[in-house]
Amino acid sequence: MEKNVEMSKNAQFRAIQPSPSILSFVEDNLLGRRRPIELRRAGYNIELSAPLDNIPFSTSSERERIEENIFRNKLEFFAAAKVSSSFPAPDLPEIAFAGRSNVGKSSMLNALTRQWGVVRTSDKPGLTQTINFFKLGTKLCLVDLPGYGFAYAKEEVKDAWEELVKEYVSTRVSLKRVCLLIDTKWGVKPRDHELISLMERSQTKYQVVLTKTDTVFPIDVARRAMQIEEVIFYLCG
Q1: pLDDT by residue for the chain (237 residues), tens digit each?
Q2: Phi and psi dihedrals of 208, rounded to 5?
Q3: In what order do the strands lie in the sheet with 140-144?
Q4: What is the CA 68 to chain-centroid distance, rounded?
Q5: Which of 73, 84, 110, 200 is 20 to 30 A from 15 (CA-CA)?
Q6: How many C-beta neighbours within 10 Å does residue 121 have?
Q7: Which of 190, 187, 196, 141 is nearest to 166 (CA)?
């Protein structure tokens, strides 16, 4: 029965018809698995072994202005908190990165700032066990939240992480936006639903970011984006 239910979910996913705008976005940004020749034409150096070093600089003057003024500042770790009383003073606007364990939060922070290694990454889920605060120059604070869901930790420890994340997301006065990372292959899970509902109730600004798009075909990236739009519309309604 479980196998039939899973097959039904897969069939439903395959039946999703993405909108033309989503399909165009996927193609314009080369999301999904791509042939080496496509990546080379877009400016990627396919000979590099480290994917995070393989990001062409933007050709958009507006985006480049933002990157130069904000994300090219030095990223420095300055605080970690296991309890809310350890949160640093809310002196800078904060952008937080949330999601399931091993979804790619730390990798995204490194990629945004192109300062590899400042935020620790690992193939072992649950490495981030505290809320970690990083100053990006004097203008912004980036916050790496503990992953929820699967992790190498006791249940009571994972529960404590999740409660800490919920408290931070719903009460932090300097929090300007939460980037909720979703694995493209697996989509929105129950814990993601819970966090989205919490952010809606607490009126916390957030946006969904799909990660690991290179593990699926382009059409499935578009389907997942369409599916997530429908999930958020349902939760918000």
Answers
A1: 555 555 588 888 999 999 999 999 999 888 999 888 888 887 777 776 544 445 555 556 666 666 666 777 788 888 999 888 999 999 999 999 999 888 888 888 877 887 766 665 544 444 557 899 999 888 899 999 988 765 555 666 667 777 888 899 999 999 999 999 999 999 999 889 889 999 999 999 999 999 999 899 999 999 999 999 988 888 776
A2: -90, 135
A3: 75-81, 131-136, 140-144, 94-99, 175-183, 206-211
A4: 22
A5: 200
A6: 18
A7: 196
Between CA 198 and CA 217 the distance in angstroms is 32
What domains appear along the chain, each with residue ranges and CATH number? 26-236 (3.40.50.300)
Cα three-residue angle 136-88-180, rounded to 5 degrees: 60
Q: How far are the Cα atoms of 47, 77, 100, 187 from residue 190, in angstroms, in the given order?
A: 39, 31, 10, 10
Burial 49-78, CB ≥16 within 10 A → b, else e: eeeeeeeeeeeeeeeeeebeeebebebeee
Write out the two tokens for 230. Answer: 């429908």
What is the Rg, in whole angstroms, of the alpha carbon atoms belonging to the chain?
A: 18
Query: Residue with structure tokens 């984006």?
Result: 225
* Half-sphere exposure at residue 38, Cβ-oriented, CA atoms within 13 angstroms: 10
